[in-house]
Design brief:
It is built from eight helices and no strands. It has 237 residues and is mainly alpha-helical.
Length: 237
C-alpha cells in the first residue's frame, strides 16, 4: 500500500514536469532567481541613495546657500569693486550649482534644505554688522577662503566616499569651479590688503576720490587689479 502511494507521488511529479517542461527542482530554482532579479531591478530603478550620500548632498546644499547669502550681502554693503565682482560670481556660480544639485536630489528622492542652517545664519548676521574695510576683509576671509576650502574638502569626500555614480560625477564637475573660486579669493584678498595698506583706513571706501597721490594710486589699483584678477584667475587652474 505504501509503495503504491509512493508510486502515485512519483507519477504526479513526473506529470507536472512534463507539463511545464522543467524538472521540479529546476522550476523552484528558476522561480527563486526571477524573484531575486526582480527585487534588484526595483532597487536600481528607484535610484535610492544611501543615508551617507544623502548627508553629503545636504552638506553641499548648505555650502551653496551660504555662499549665495554672503555674496548678496557683499553686493549690498561693499564699496570695493573687486570684492563686488567676486561676490557676484559667487552668487551666479553657486546658484547654478544649487540648481544642478536640486535636479539630482529630485531624481534620487532626496529633500534638500532651502535656507542656511543656524551656524551659517549666525555667521552671515555677524558679517552684516561690519562696514568698510572690516566688512571686505571678513567677507573674503570667510566666504572667499575659509568656506571654499571647506567646500573643496567636501567635494573630495564626495568623490572618494559617495557610492552613487551620479553624485560622484557632480562632485567632479564642481571641483574645478571651487578651485577657481579659491584662486580668485586669494587674488582679491591680496589686492584688497595692498590697497588698504597704501591708502589708509578709508582706502576701499574712497576709491573714486582724486587729488592726492594716494587717491590716484587707489583708483589705478582698483581698476587695474580687478581686470587682472578676472583675466588671470582661470589660467591658474
Amino acid at each position: 500500500m505504501q509503495e503504491r502511494k509512493n508510486l502515485n507521488r512519483l507519477l504526479g511529479a513526473a506529470l507536472l514536469a512534463c507539463l511545464f517542461g522543467l524538472p521540479p527542482a529546476a522550476q523552484a530554482q528558476s522561480g527563486s532567481t526571477s524573484a531575486t532579479q526582480g527585487a534588484g531591478a526595483g532597487q536600481k530603478a528607484g535610484g535610492k541613495l544611501s543615508r551617507a550620500d544623502e548627508n553629503l548632498m545636504r552638506e553641499m546644499a548648505q555650502s551653496n546657500l551660504a555662499e549665495i547669502e554672503t555674496g548678496k550681502i557683499a553686493l549690498s554693503q561693499s564699496k570695493n569693486d573687486q570684492v563686488r565682482n567676486f561676490a557676484q560670481k559667487m552668487v551666479d556660480d553657486h546658484t547654478q550649482a544649487q540648481k544642478e544639485l536640486e535636479q539630482l536630489a529630485q531624481a534620487k528622492g532626496v529633500t534638500l534644505p532651502t535656507e542656511p542652517d543656524r551656524k551659517h545664519k549666525a555667521a552671515a548676521k555677524k558679517l552684516s554688522s561690519l562696514q568698510g574695510d572690516n566688512f571686505d576683509k571678513r567677507y573674503l576671509a570667510q566666504g572667499g577662503l575659509s568656506d571654499h576650502r571647506n567646500t573643496h574638502r567636501l567635494l573630495e569626500r564626495m568623490q572618494s566616499r559617495a557610492t552613487d555614480p551620479d553624485l560622484k560625477a557632480l562632485a567632479a564637475k564642481m571641483t574645478p569651479i571651487i578651485e577657481q573660486h579659491l584662486t580668485m579669493a586669494e587674488d582679491v584678498t591680496g589686492s584688497a590688503a595692498s590697497l588698504s595698506g597704501s591708502m589708509g583706513p578709508a582706502g576701499t571706501s574712497s576709491t573714486s576720490s582724486g587729488g592726492g597721490s594716494s587717491g590716484g594710486a587707489g583708483k589705478s589699483g582698483v581698476s587695474g587689479t580687478s581686470g587682472s584678477s578676472n583675466s588671470t584667475s582661470p589660467g591658474k587652474q
